[in-house]
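[job 4471] stage=fold_predict status=RUNNING
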Amino acid sequence: MIDIDQANQTAVSRMMEARPFLKRIDTAINVIPGMRDNLLLHAGPPISWENASGPLRGAIVGALILEGKATDWGSAVELVTSGQVDLEPCHEHATVGPMAGVTSASMKVYVVENVTHGNVAYSNMNEGYGKVLRYGAYSEEVLEKLHWLNGSFADIVNQALAEIDGLDIRALLAESLHMGDEGHNRNKAGSIIFATKLAPAIVRTNASDEEKAKAIQFLAENALSVLNPVMAACKAMADAGHGVEGSTIMTVMARNGTELGIRVSGLGDQWFTGPVGQPDGLYFPGFTADDANGDIGDSTITETAGIGAFAMATAPAIVTFISGTPELALNTTLEMYEITETEHSAFTIPALGFRGTPTGVDIRKVVELGIRPQINTGIAHKDPGIGQVGAGLVLPPTNVFEEALMAYAEKYLG
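[job 4471] inference complete, writing structure tokens
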């Protein structure tokens, strides 16, 4: 007889015991399991080119041009539709990527090791806000910035990480939550901490003064600098709780712009998918909800690990970016306690008397109570080539939790 409660306690305990350290930066094809020259990784569950959203298509085209495999939209599409280039989810390769999440063989990635359990997770470089590859833009200026990020910038930061022997991302997150971050859409404090810890070591690298200054300035001015290593850290934590026999804890929640998919600890690598929601939020000047693509990105790994929207009570100022009120931020966190297994031992909320963040979504509770996990998200334009148009809130489809619970019942209770 399966003891579900014990299995869930084991899964979330492993998630909270995990200590993700940012060890270094390396080339994707050298470190990501199963990565190959003709493979592009993407956010969310599996998807074909035919069903891909505009921003995901734009990011695929941009990555193929970056790799030198294509010169324009037409030649890139030919590579994918003819089967010369494969598309697979980041999550199936121990990797996560924000928004479109497209990661190609030559890209540099953060290497984050869970020193408690030994598993490793990866994420690509963060480009900042606006017109960027992860939102489907692929203009010359976008590609020029990517060449710099994957070249000089990555080399300098890697040298700095080697000198300081890596960074404890769980500790960084715990501190940033006490400074007004929630770890998903608001990372201002965490990015400042990130830049502060790296800057002295960057100064001592062998790069030119101009390149060192450029790297430090980018880290300091990009309020999302730390998001990608944070996502890899959350992936490492969530993976530590995956594969526990009999557990109903969700260990993956991810979107590709067309579908959202989840995975459950006790159900192996099976995806349960449904249509993505349309975010409700605030838009940049000149854009409206009519311009918006459906929800997209692997960044919901933050909510999966117990931060992001689940920690909104620590970050009431986030509502100025995603819409809502400070009361909404507080009430969102309180509601998430209803569908989670425990309170995080490392991530705490000052406004709630240092109560731990809601951690470990139990699919049974989601179905029973009808409360879905809240998601904070950026909003991409529905057409490729344009980029980010806003940020907001969205919910996953109900069916993914119902279907996962039915599959669980068939496997363990049938």
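[job 4471] summary: The mean pLDDT is 97.
[job 4471] exit 0
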